[in-house]
Write a structure and sequence with these properties.
The protein is α+β, with helices and mostly antiparallel strands. It has a domain of 153 residues. It has 4 helices and 7 strands, in the order H-H-E-E-E-E-E-H-E-E-H. The chain has a 5-stranded antiparallel sheet, sandwiched between helices. The chain is globular, with a radius of gyration of 24 Å. It starts with a helix and ends with a helix.
């Protein structure tokens, strides 16, 4: 009779260890899978933003190989004015990495309903956009959420002027009216005025950080 409580305690401890080990194993396995899926989505976004082809038609191995061969990141750049920094992404036209295709940087800012995160790519001379992709957003589906759709993102592939502008912002969100002679206008999302205004603010802030940081990065080279 006196041994029964010890038996119950031992049994409960054994059950706890078994289930605890199982849960830990599932968590570790899921964490590894989640990390691999996250990396694959990042690589697909790089394929898209730098226009290396349609990532939907490429398998995981092909996507990984292309990014590994033609995309380089890891260089930290800092805006001397704000102190904000970002990781510079460099994309090359071929695996030999002799010709630069574009620069890119990851941005994050507050949209109308929540954070918006993405990657913006610009030409080697930093004067115009070559690609844009939204990685995460929480805007209204069918309205502000369309910032992640081709109707909005493809405009950046056609080349929006984003060079420093002494007369105003790097780019503007608008709709209708005569064409912008400087090519700085991005068509806003119809029916999503607040999201469009938020994107205008976020992109101008991030472009300011990017352009000032790149100017500081290139300054020593220009002085040689």
């Amino acid at each position: 009779m006196t041994s029964k409580p010890w038996f119950i305690v031992t049994f409960m401890v054994a059950i706890a260890l078994v289930f605890g080990s199982g849960v830990t194993g599932i968590y570790l396995g899921s964490a590894d899978l989640l990390q691999r899926n996250t990396e694959f989505l990042r690589q697909r976004a790089l394929i898209s933003v730098f226009d290396f082809g349609d990532p939907a038609r490429l398998g995981k191995a092909a996507v990984a190989a292309l990014v590994t061969a033609q995309v380089v990141d890891g260089e930290r750049c800092t805006d001397p004015q704000s102190g904000a920094s970002f990781e510079l992404i460099k994309a090359y036209t071929a695996a030999d990495r002799e010709q630069l295709k574009a620069y890119g940087f990851r941005f994050r800012g507050l949209g109308f309903w929540g954070p918006v995160e993405g990657i913006l790519a610009v030409s080697p001379d930093l004067s115009r956009t070559v690609g844009f992709v939204v990685l995460d957003q929480s805007e209204t589906p069918g309205l502000g959420g369309r910032i992640a759709e081709p109707v909005f993102t493809e405009q950046f592939r056609r080349g929006i002027t984003v060079s420093p502008n002494p007369k105003g912002p790097y780019l503007r969100m608008g709709s209708g009216g005569p064409p912008d002679p400087e090519g700085r206008q991005v068509d806003a999302i119809t029916g999503a005025t607040q999201t469009s205004m938020a994107m205008e603010r976020v992109l101008n802030e991030q472009l300011g950080i990017f352009q000032r940081a790149m100017a500081a990065r290139q300054a020593p080279q220009r002085s040689l």
